[in-house]
Amino acid sequence: MVTVGRTGAAVARGVNALRGKATGFVARHYLAWRSRRGLDPMSLIPDYALMPLRRDGLDPVPALREAREDHPVRDFPLPFGVKAWLVTGHEEAREVLGRTKGLSNDFNHLIGRAGIASGQNPGGLGFTDPPEHTRLRRLLTPEFTGRRLSRLGPRIAEIVDGRLDAMAEMAERGEEVDLVRDFATPIPSLTICELLGIPYDERDEFQALSTARFDLLAGATAAFDKISESLVYLRGVVERQRAEPGEGLLGMLIREHGDELDTDELAELADGLLTGGLETSASMLALGSVILLRDADVAAMVRDEPDSVHGFVEELLRYLTVVQIAFPRFATEDMTIGGVDIAEGDGLLVSLSAADRDPRLTPDPEVFDPRRPPSPHLAFGHGIHRCIGAELARMELRTAYPALLRRFPALTMAVDERTLPLRGTSIVYGVDALPVTLGS
């Protein structure tokens, strides 16, 4: 057997890195070529590569558990020879998400500049590295403290009550009530409108810009088109706010930091809050309602024990983990994660849904137990890219579930749960319709 010394190993790594860069260059240009001709790049991704986004009902597919049991960091090759690793263990996931050095979230690593049409780079917090990420987050963080968010509490309660009134009126008219359309989606939509200062009459357009980008079965081209549409729309909102700053977050940022943030940056920040706070909260409200509708004892607990909603929501966040994978990270230096050597240029895909079902996190993780002690779940991520709106999402969930159950104690599902249109392959897992009977 031939052994390779340190110098030889370094040379080998350099050759592999150059090979990887060349492969990536060709791949990016090929993807761009296909996109320009209306051919969806997602059609090139093999079925196994979509495994982390698939579910069996509300549960991650068994293959994710088997992957974690095999090794919490395992080789996960992607098309065009892209070297990647799938991280499924909770400890390993926290290590990756918590690293501030050696890993990059920059969007250009994901597609490459050659594969991105003008206006399709979402920027914002999720796809930005320090020091730019640090600068942007510093501007936003004060608005997402518990004290600042508390001012939204009464407005969230009003929004929830308004939706419950509308549902009651629909039922009285003999119309079908759909918890996705009539409850789970409008509550976070109106809340984000309130937060940002978006006019309510633009809610439907605002809402439609969020969903398609997460559905990989709809294709990458459709997803990036939605990003582009969203940024165009939000640039218009920002320009109107520059002329006449409102009382929402955008108006505040323009008044206090207008010289530090250009229109594109403000639109990207708003787009990040839209995508991070609308579709995710809507999915949580809908899927959480499925759990309440299937278990009368849990529903009674949330309805009749006011203090129980905190534990219920935390367990629900862990159990559902609707954001199935974190933003991809790319190694900017060699490192070791979970005993596995990661080379510079490798990608890391963190399966949040698998990590939150790790037995090392909590006993019997496959069981939904609303009375279990809260665990350090990863539903909102971890580290510098942890969801900045986590507390706002908790406020919405803690307000909406008890109000729904108290207003409609006889609420039942109007269809067999097995027929619910659960999403097939989506970064944000959810259900597209949830017909219910309100009862008397």
UniProtKB/TrEMBL annotation:
UniProt keyword annotations, A-Z: Heme, Iron, Metal-binding, Monooxygenase, Oxidoreductase
PROSITE patterns: CYTOCHROME_P450
InterPro entries according to UniProt: Cyt_P450, Cyt_P450_B, Cyt_P450_CS, Cyt_P450_sf
Cross-referenced Gene3D superfamilies: Cytochrome P450
CDD domains: CYP105-like
Family membership noted in the UniProt record: Belongs to the cytochrome P450 family.
Protein name: Cytochrome P450
